[in-house]
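A reminder from the course coordinator: this example appears on the midterm review sheet, so study it carefully.

Given structure:
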């Protein structure tokens, strides 16, 4: 079997093969773009070929940036379009492509990789762990009133009360540049968020509001008239569905939520892709008016260089841990002393006794601060060698904000 990068001439073969792997047919091109695969970068796509040259597998990555806790932006190849023809499954094709892909990422100097898992049982064996989560919040319109905030606004507590900005409603076709600019501003401050390269917006290659699907956009502007948030929504059979809400702070999110919750002639409002523990449910006058559902994993993270990854993200408490990390897929093992002082981390090999023993996939899960190490200890994934090891790890890995990813790829 041969695994090789594609060329521009291979694009049709690549697209046909990945669709056949999932038992689907490529979409018919439409005016305005909107084909999910049109944003693929051919030099980052792989084809698996049999000895006689027949394509049987595909894999690709997008060149994204990931925002880490503390606001550092790092290259993050986003794995996508992974498929093997049904006739060639369980023959090592997927494993070979994953090894090839990780080797390419390392060769480019990338120290982590990310993906969205079509099935949760597939990618753990390749070293990926779920790192961000998302859920759906449904609010019945007749119970949608927001309570007056009780906490006094201070410099340390972002305002979520009365908003002095304004909201306009525009059709999706009139806000291309604004959507791109506001999303980029948001993702640079949100741990776990991925960039949306300009080509995605230009080609409409994604889900709403990137795609050409008809949507209305509620645009929030600050007191100077500068857009600082938006909500993309549609209405069908009495349900107002919000694809995504982008806001530079909680006050803007609250203003957009108040707007869609006050929309006439709808029976319920569904907010898709709300971060776990988001304050919106607590802001409802009737707490039970917000029904949480669709709780699921979203972004999975795989570390390729543990010391570099740990010293690049931001840290918010001082501490020390010895981590014994196994990487079965790549056949690697390392024991590292992680020391954090005044927000700066040092990570070096050590022969000290470990505080925690864990798989690289579990380290990927806790890396962004969205999964507590103690949860994985209780689940039997991580072994704690000292009683205080898990609480210390929880405090150390906790992020400045709950990591969240909205981007679909």
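Designed residues:
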């Amino acid at each position: 079997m041969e695994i090789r990068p594609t060329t521009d001439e291979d694009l049709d073969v690549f697209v046909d093969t990945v669709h056949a792997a999932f038992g689907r047919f490529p979409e018919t091109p439409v005016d305005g773009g909107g084909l999910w695969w049109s944003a693929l970068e051919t030099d980052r796509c792989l084809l698996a070929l049999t000895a006689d040259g027949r394509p049987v597998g595909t894999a690709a990555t997008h060149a994204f940036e990931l925002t880490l806790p503390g606001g550092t932006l790092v290259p993050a190849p986003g794995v996508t379009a992974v498929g093997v023809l049904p006739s060639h499954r369980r023959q090592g094709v997927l494993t070979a492509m994953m090894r090839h892909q990780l080797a390419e990422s390392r060769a480019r100097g990338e120290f982590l990789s990310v993906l969205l898992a079509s099935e949760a049982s597939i990618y753990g064996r390749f070293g990926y762990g779920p790192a961000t989560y998302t859920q759906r919040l449904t609010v019945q319109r007749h119970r949608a009133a927001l309570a007056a905030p009780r906490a006094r606004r201070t410099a340390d507590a972002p305002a979520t009360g009365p908003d002095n900005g304004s909201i306009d409603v525009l059709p999706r076709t009139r806000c291309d540049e604004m959507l791109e600019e506001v999303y980029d501003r948001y993702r640079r401050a949100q741990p776990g968020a991925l960039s949306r390269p300009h080509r995605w917006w230009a080609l409409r290659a994604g889900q709403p509001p990137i795609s050409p699907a008809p949507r209305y956009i509620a645009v929030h502007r600050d007191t100077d008239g500068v857009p600082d948030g938006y909500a993309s929504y549609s209405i069908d059979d009495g349900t107002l569905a919000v694809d995504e809400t982008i806001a530079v702070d909680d006050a803007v999110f609250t203003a957009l939520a108040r707007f869609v919750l006050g929309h006439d002639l709808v029976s319920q409002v569904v907010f898709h892709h709300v971060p776990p523990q988001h304050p919106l449910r607590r802001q409802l006058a009737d707490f039970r008016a917000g029904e949480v559902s669709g709780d699921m994993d979203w972004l999975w993270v795989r570390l390729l260089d543990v010391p570099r990854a740990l010293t690049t993200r931001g840290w918010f408490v001082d501490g020390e841990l010895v981590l014994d990390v196994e990487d079965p897929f790549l056949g690697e093992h390392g024991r590292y002393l992680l020391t954090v002082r005044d927000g700066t981390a040092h990570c070096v090999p050590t022969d000290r006794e470990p505080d925690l023993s864990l798989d690289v996939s579990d380290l990927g899960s806790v890396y962004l601060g969205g999964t507590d190490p103690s949860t994985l200890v209780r689940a039997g994934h991580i072994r704690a060698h000292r009683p205080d090891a898990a609480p210390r790890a929880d405090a150390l890995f906790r992020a400045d904000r709950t990591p969240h990813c909205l981007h679909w790829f």
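The radius of gyration is 23 Å. The CA atoms of residues 22 and 297 lie 21 Å apart.
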